[in-house]
Design goal:
238 residues; mainly alpha; 0% strand
Length: 238
């Protein structure tokens, strides 16, 4: 009888452990997915750094373009950390007003998509340097160009709110995982875009840059509208 109770107790403990483990894995996967998406969205629009990355890929080689993207990613992560740190002081407010903040985040994302669609990245093209320069030089210049645009913080605020990224009570490990996922998303974008441009270097021209930027803007607008609709319906897709 005692043996049966003991075995039953162990069985219950094992089931509880399995459920907790599954919840933890699900939470980490959710954070990874959200962070990756944020990293891609922040990096995708072809502003000055995006055009610079394409220019260097075409004129200097793929890895010079990727290092340029890497410099931009490090700057973006710095702004993401700054945004997250600032928002940590108002977690209670965020938790109580998550509906309105997600609504605001969707609207900000929509405006960002419209701006991206309407902008002409070709205007950001700079004269090509005769020298390739070192990888470090290409990294630092891209880092400086991205860092000189603090308005990126508002985009992070919108994205963090829209994706309900890093809610109150998250563990330090989960927080670190989230920011690493943002970095991974950004690097995946720069790796993909430099690969794409390098493969099509003979066909890629100014019109190609303009079309790519319009496609990116359209995708961002579509995602924001879907998020806005789901928020208004009281549903969640994230």
């Amino acid at each position: 009888m005692l043996l049966e109770k003991t075995l039953t107790g162990y069985t219950v403990l094992i089931k509880k452990y399995d459920i907790c483990t599954m919840i933890q894995i699900g939470t980490i996967f959710d954070i990874l997915l959200k962070g990756f998406a944020i990293g891609v969205v922040v990096s995708a629009p072809l502003g000055p750094v995006g055009v610079l990355c394409i220019q260097r890929t075409l004129n200097k080689g793929r890895w010079y373009g990727f290092i340029t993207g890497l410099g931009a990613s490090v700057s973006d992560i710095a702004y993401a950390l700054l945004t997250g740190y600032g928002m940590s002081f108002i977690f209670d407010y965020i938790d109580k007003n998550i509906f309105y903040l997600q609504l605001l985040g969707s609207i900000m994302l929509l405006l960002f998509g419209i701006y991206t669609f309407r902008s002409n990245p070709v205007q950001s093209i700079r004269p090509v340097s005769a020298s390739k320069g070192t990888y470090l030089h290409n990294f630092i210049t891209a880092f400086a160009v991205t860092l000189s645009n603090p308005l990126i913080i508002f985009l992070f605020i919108g994205l963090f709110a829209r994706f309900a990224f890093l809610q109150p009570g998250v563990l330090l490990f989960e927080t670190i995982t989230g920011y690493l996922a943002i970095a991974l998303g950004a690097l995946a974008w720069w790796f993909g875009i430099t690969f794409f441009v390098n493969k099509l270097r003979k066909k890629f021209n100014l019109r190609g840059i303009w079309i790519l930027n319009r496609i990116i803007g359209s995708v961002v607008m579509l995602a924001s509208v879907v998020g806005l609709i789901y928020t208004l319906l009281g549903e969640s897709i994230y």
